[in-house]
Write a structure and sequence with these properties.
The chain contains 12 helices and 14 strands. Helix content is 36%, strand content 17%.
Length: 331
């Protein structure tokens, strides 16, 4: 479906709210003192199995205390990132609703839709009769209160950094009694992060390449957010790191910064011109003199991989690192 920068509406709503939510109380829910975990041994395997004990009381990112009397059997997710987590934890059969933007994994396309990520369809959610509604970072406090006003059990997440994303996965595992799957997923993601760090470890500060990232037309990212972390872990220097949060592009500044590599979201197309984001970047006045454009060091990554703070963070990291230093990752 081609709309003019179809991703803009979602990304701008979502990512402007990132900066608003990231000021206070933006960390993941604190379950460290409230979750009781029962560890039992499997005699056949000699391995420990983690089981969540219910009732379970958790404080979510909105500061609300939520009590789960039993493991949720019907789950609605209004956030693509959280939907990807649920699928990665093997909870496909328990997902009874997802947002209109949820398109990964492929099975998510078959789930009933419950509206947008900013303000979902309350009637559709009520009809799904969920045990819990999971709201993502883009859901405002007003919408959270509105949904809770319908006596819906709502758990709000608000991860901005990689560490918060990993903790969010672990907490989702606790809520859904999928702790082992969550711990394995986090361990696998940490292995990828460590592998990338090891591969670029010998790149000196003088050799580090300058990187510009444009996840959505006219928008880039500074410090304090996971995309900036991905660039840094990959051994690059984000030219927008002197800013904070999600910021509009200063075209003249990017020309002056002269990045060696440009990373941008693939599959974003301007409906009027039919041009992809990469072409639009090249066509900007003066940008043809930027090293990354002159030397064709422009890396396209699918926007859902690059923009979602979920299990595919490490896929984005791998692609970013290989794009910046392809010679280091050649087999």
């Amino acid at each position: 479906m081609l709309r003019k920068f179809w991703f803009s509406l979602l990304a701008i709503f979502t990512l402007i709210l990132f900066s608003a939510c990231g000021q206070e109380g933006s960390g993941p829910a604190d379950v460290s003192e409230e979750v009781e975990v029962n560890e039992t041994s499997e005699q056949a395997e000699g391995e420990s199995t983690l089981q969540t004990e219910y009732p379970l009381t958790i404080t979510d990112a909105s500061g609300e205390e939520i009590t789960f009397e039993k493991v949720p059997e019907k789950i609605v997710s209004t956030s693509p990132s959280e939907t990807e987590i649920l699928f990665a934890l093997g909870l496909d059969d328990k997902i009874v609703g997802v947002s209109d933007y949820d398109d990964y994994p492929e099975e998510a396309l078959e789930k009933p839709k419950v509206g947008g990520v900013v303000e979902p369809n309350v009637e559709a959610i009520i009809e799904a009769s969920p045990d819990v509604v999971i709201g993502g970072i883009s859901m405002s406090d007003d919408v959270v209160d509105k949904l809770r006003g319908y006596d819906l059990q709502l758990y709000k997440t608000d991860a901005n950094t990689i560490d918060e994303a990993l903790e969010n996965i672990l907490q989702m595992g606790v809520i859904t009694n999928s702790q082992e799957a969550a711990e394995k997923l986090v361990a696998d993601m940490k292995d990828v992060i460590q592998s990338v760090e090891d591969t670029v470890a010998n790149v000196s500060d003088e050799e580090k390449k300058k990187v510009y990232i444009e996840y959505n037309p006219g928008w880039t990212v500074g410090k304090g957010e996971f995309m900036n972390e991905l660039i840094e872990i990959a051994g690059g220097v984000n030219v927008a790191a002197d800013t904070e949060g999600w910021v509009e592009v200063n075209e003249e500044k990017i020309i002056q910064d002269n990045p060696d590599v440009i990373i941008y979201s693939a599959n974003i197309v301007d409906e009027d011109s039919g041009k992809q984001l990469g072409e639009l970047i090249k066509d900007r006045s003066g940008w043809d003199k930027i090293t990354a454009v002159e030397e064709d060091q422009m890396i396209a990554i699918h926007e859902s991989v690059m923009s979602r703070i979920g299990p595919r963070l490490t896929d984005a990291l791998q692609q970013i690192a290989e794009g910046i230093y392809p010679e280091l990752f050649e087999q």
